[in-house]
Fold each of these.
Amino acid sequence: MPLCTNPINKRNKVLYITYNGLCQPLGQSQVIPYIIGLSKQGYKFTVLSFEHHYEKDFETEQKKVQTLLDNAGIKWIPIKYHKHPMFFSSLYDIMYGILKALIFFTKESYYIVHARSYVPGMMALMLKKIFKTKFIFDMRGMMADEKVDAEQWTRKSTSYKTTKWAERKMLINADAIVVLTDKIKTYLQSFAYINAPISVIPTCVDPSRFPNRNNSSTCLSDEYTGTFIKAGLLDEDQRHQMRKELDIDDKIVIVYSGSIGTWYLFDKMVEFFKVIKANEPKAHFLLLNKTEHAYALRILKDQDVSPEDYTIQAVSPDEVHKYLWASDMGIFFIKPSFSKQSSSPTKLAEYLSCGLPVIGNSGVGDIEEIILENALGSIVYKFEQKEYRRAFDRAMQLINDPDFDKRAQGMVDTSLSVKVGVKRYRWIYDKL
């Protein structure tokens, strides 16, 4: 049954707290589509977000987001994110965020507080204690263990111990827990102190913003923004046009899209490309990245990759899909570790939605199962030449597989699309 939207119904009022700013690409792809989708089904949102106000395009993005949320009837309270000093800045943000939330509650009550990750989780926990709200702990990852695996903290540090203590408190008191992978769900189910239901909602893609390059539809509507993507770009002539603009029309293009720091093993991806290039003269590496060009160039130069064999492009989020259409396969290597069992890279869904076979590595979330069980790409088990060649050869087979698009689209439609994510969140909300 649809949720009752009568003003008397107080159960549909949600305070959504996110530490990822809505003016950032992640907030725009992994927060806004869900809350707009849920608001269309009767839930009334107020969003408190921590915004990176110091970024050069912040004011432009803020105006765009404000218009989008206003049109959806969603209240938005952006507050400043503090980056330094580490740990203590997070404590400050928690206390300031709680103060702001307390002011909200003096004006109107909320039935659900949905906290995206740990800092919002601590705020939501405090609000639950004071106002007896329902608390959704949307974990995203394992924050303390990620910091250790990234060699930023040690397990003996105060920061680690404090964060693990807070994690336990949030898991004990949550009314619902959301994680990104089946692996981390299985891990958490071993803890007897967790009584809340655990739901798996991987990072999802909006197929209208990352349409399949072989889709022949006339027009694709973005149900969250109300805008339209002209599908004239979806035919082969337009793919060739983009490839000519990039001077890669006769190449086999391996694309990587996104940031290349901390967890992503860009040096291994370059190593992979260099091995493939030695055997496949037409191979070309395409990097879609906004700000880390100097670092990328240093790695490429250190590994003696010729400038004519790669292209680095700064691309706005609205344009990424066009470059994916111009590519032949997508790649990402992530540092495997204990904490990465909770990881669900957005680019996996984006590559598949655009119709690209995917090359990934083992030891990261549910990636191996998704790719291999559905014949959607290949997995590298060791970072060595033999494995690189095998993975590339498998991806080449899939490029020529007439059923690949159907499988990729099926995986997106059933498991990795925003519509599926909204449906799963709706189920959690309704149960509360």
Amino acid sequence: MVEHGLTMREGDRRDRRPGAHIIENQDGKLIGSFIRLTKVRVAEFRKLLAEEQQQTVSKPEMDIKSTHLPIRRTTADFYNEYPIPKASDTLPVLSKRHVTKRPQMNKWQTELWLKRMSEVNTPATEPHLPEPPLRIIRAEEARFHRKIRDAIALQQAILDQQAPETGWAALERDATLAKWHKQLTPYQRQLRDSFNRYHSAKQAWTRAQKSVWLRMNGKSRRLEKICDRLLLEFLEVLRFVVQTLLHIVGLRSTPATPLRSSVTENDRPALEAFRKRHDAEFSAMADQATLNVWLSSRFDRLVDARAQRIQQWNMVHQPEKDSARQEIKRLSTLLTRKPISSKRQVAIKQHPSSTPAFLPSCGSS
């Protein structure tokens, strides 16, 4: 509006029409109302005026006066006491550029490197041996040498064979005995309980036998039947416990046969025979001190049996290993001999021998 020589001011009738503005030229001549000329609504125009007044009244963001310190100069050394900050102090400090450092060598690596560098120009104390001359062989000879090396590898595999139990870990005496005792404890208790039931029934039957009245009314006979039944049950438990003992210490390959629910008189002969055959094991399970001695001797026999099996295996395979050792010695000499012709190789293949058919015997040249 200023470019066209026009100005806008508030109207003269402020009390009746607040907010009305008129437009005049430089000579003060009335041009017209701003609202009529611009076709703007009164509400929007008043809103624009309110925003303009609020912006003019509000304090600007960058006020120079707000940076002044409310301090009066009181001394002559005022500026020395409160120095003005330099421009370099107010500027932001730029971060340093990241520099990748090489990893540092250890002390022993540094000493080794320095020692090697110092020995670079040191003359050798021993003369260098001349390299062997390069030898060019035919393809037939190379294939023949490869077959010899394969045959040597087969014989070396025979020499490297060992007894199956050689690589097993050695048995620890204390650990093995403790493990056996822990496994046998519940079976000892089971055998003792079964024997106590049978022993109590036998004592009751023995007392009944001494009484004429108990023999006459038949109670002695009933106690005898109970005693026989408990005896069969005890023999069955004994059979189960002894078989378990033999399986734990390695004298039986399969676990013990489970306990049978009912045992008849027909099973008595087999159970009695089993008890007589394994009387030592039954005595060991019945007494703890006897069991300790029995397990200790069993461990010693177990170790001796393993050593004997290893020794027996070596004795059986010793002739085979000796033959393999001689064969390796003979085949190694063939690698250093003068190469033979293809016709000679064909003749060697046709010659029967215990060694591979393509290899000559010890007497051939």
Amino acid sequence: LLNAEGAPPGCELWPEPLERGHVTLPDTSAVTADDSSCLLFTSGTTARSKAVEHTHRSQLHAGAAMGAALELTSDDTYQGAFPLYTSSAFNLACMSAWVYGAAVVLEEDGLSNEMRLRLIESECTTVYHGVPAILHFLIEAYARGYYDMSRVRRVGYGGAAMSREIIELYRCHWPNADQVQVWGMTETGPAGTVLPARMLDTHAGAIGVAQLGCRVRLVADYTPGDVLREVAPGEVGEIAFSGPSAARGYFRNPEATAQTFVDGWVLSGDLARQDADGVLHYVDRKKDIINRGGLKVASAAVEDVLYRYEAVQEAAVIGVPHSHLGEDIAACVVPRAGMEIDVAQLEEHCRQMLADYEVPRRWYVLEALPRNPMGKVQKNVLREHVLAR
């Protein structure tokens, strides 16, 4: 909806309220728990964003599940590094704080990491939550200055798997704060899974087990019209979610809804495997798996190795067309301030830790990676940029 003339085809103009005359508000008693309550857009990291339609019921359940995962109480002040229009800000931060009686601090757009740290100080934040990329930059900023983080009792992260290196940095610099990994997406609430702090020592880097009131299973590739089939134990499968926090579907998009919302389950597009303890380990987005001559490469696994190279500040791995192999592996890296990346040395570093077919063959040293407001890398934009070079 736009408040401007010349809207693109298919869009509607937002009506001018002063031109509509007197408007009678509807009788609120007619509203039910299953009525639509909001539209929240997906992150758009692999494709164009879609509007996810949530109900009053799904929002409340999302708040209940996420608040339980973070173990919020009425004594907490929760601060989240999320744009206000996302499910993380609305259903996770605000609804969780409301359900469990916690205070909530929302960060305004454009905050630097130093300003985030000062806000944690001034608001006496006890639970801080963000995506791994934001937390990566935040702990580096903390190490360069002095900030009182003594009141922070918990750090939460989600949106991607957290690297072990950053986990250890937080343990070192914020020893009073335990850590909780969550997984979810706009379509699921964003409720989903949780790795509680008590499981960090044994399963660091995993995304955990189902949250309160949620169910998750790993399923094989789904073809519309078929039935969902679980993969064998230990095999990689797509995370399917079921629970009362799930959205109704995509707004005015029945085709996409039918592909994602299947038989009471939400097909996430995220791949994972389950270990012997029943804990899920994130593998990659289905769309980010690179098929190099029939050999499947998880971009997330290659990125994890790249981040272990001292001179690398940021890294993203994408598949690019190859005339014989179908796809090849391209690594996009950003150097740390004041450091240079020797590509030959970085490639050798990868060869020591990866199979030969997993080692990137194309390298791009960039000034920055394209990110959305959540801090997630926009691989669709990055791929277009690389192919245009």
Amino acid sequence: MTGPSSDKESGMTDPSTDDGVLVVASGDVATLTGPDGVFLSVSPACRRLFGWEPTQLEGKAEADFVHPDDRSALRVGRSALVDDDAQTTTYRFLCSDGSYRWTETVSRRAGSDGSGLVVSAIRDISRRRAHTADLERLAFTDPLTGVANRPVLMDRLHQGLRRLRRSGGVLAVLYLDMDRFKVVNDSLGHLVGDAVLAQMAERLAHHLRPVDTLARLGGDEFAIVAEGLADEVEAIGLGERIAGAGRQPFRIGAETFECTISVGIACTADSERSADDLLSEADLALYRAKERGRNRAEAFDEQLRTAPVGRLVTERILRRSLDNAGLVVEYQPIIDLQSGRAVGAEALVRISDPERGLLLPESFLDVAAETGLLIGMDMQVMTDAVEQVSRWRSRLAGRSPDHVAINITARHLADSSFPRVVIDQLDTVGVPHSALHIEITERILLEASNSAITGLRTLRDAGVQVGLDDFGTGYSSLAYLRQFPLDFVEIGPMQVA
């Protein structure tokens, strides 16, 4: 086949009809077919579009040049021709080199004498179809691996649950995470990391049936929806095969290394289950697999639902909370016992998690500190606290608490820009600097560097109150504390021998 495509997003007008006459645009192929569907006349444009000479088509059935899968569309379109109404049909047309091109054909009856003659204008729409296919791929697939994306996975999961009502069996969701993938990215670079993700997607697809859906959720996380399983045992077997796919070494260029995979499995035979709940259960099972050593598959069970949250699961919850506004700041009033007035409040952080409810600090602060997430949490708490003081001052008019207290970490003290961040936040909302009290623990104060002490003095000189929290739980004396820039000291719980 020769010549360029004539699909004119290039400015060509659409084939149209006018007063019972088919108007054929320049570049379209005009045809006349008899009642038996045989070409009687074909315009020379077919040479450029499809590589055929007109005489090679004339006398032959139109259906012989239509892709077998599209012949039903041709029949339906022709049977719908009535009176002077035009019909548009889309199908693939055979080219002289054996390939097929997508076409759009507008047809109508030639006259009203009952002869059964049909006149058509055939246009090549290959480029348009390819562009549409590209847009669909962008909308529904992960561009790096070519597998489905999260919206497609959730749609398939919803459909699978609906099919359970009539098909029975078991539906499984498998949540996958590559073990220590960050090490690969950090040590070998993102190009190698991307190649590993693409190879892993290929490996996973090799273990799936046509009815299963594989999706990349983001980063190094994948998920699978598997329908029509006999029972949970079959789902666990699939999970173990998936875990095995990561045990084979990866070879990227000159590099050879391992990057195993952990799998969490959630199963149901109940069509009324929530898709989100199933995905969450698979996620919890995944983190049990991580806690038990990685490179394995684990299934969700009721014990997991009621078991204490492990450190990895806690980290997961923390990250979600920071990303999705899951932090809750509560305010504990500070009361003047003589007047009974709330003179201040202490900001206390909580986490609101859809699965676990309201989590108190003792369940997550250690993990937040170990993972470096505590800094982001504290900044969110400070922003909320400063804005809350502003709201109190505007709404309570003279009856509002004078200040709000927040705790800061050693990492904040070590950051030379921290004092300026605090002062800028107060100035942005128009709150006096004295309305913010910053509290640090005795241990952090005693370990603070000279630059950290300088930062505290900068805050204190700007009017921010600086205090020591839980004094007495350590070993320092009041005399020793006099050398630090402090405005107040809070006495901690007494230790009785």
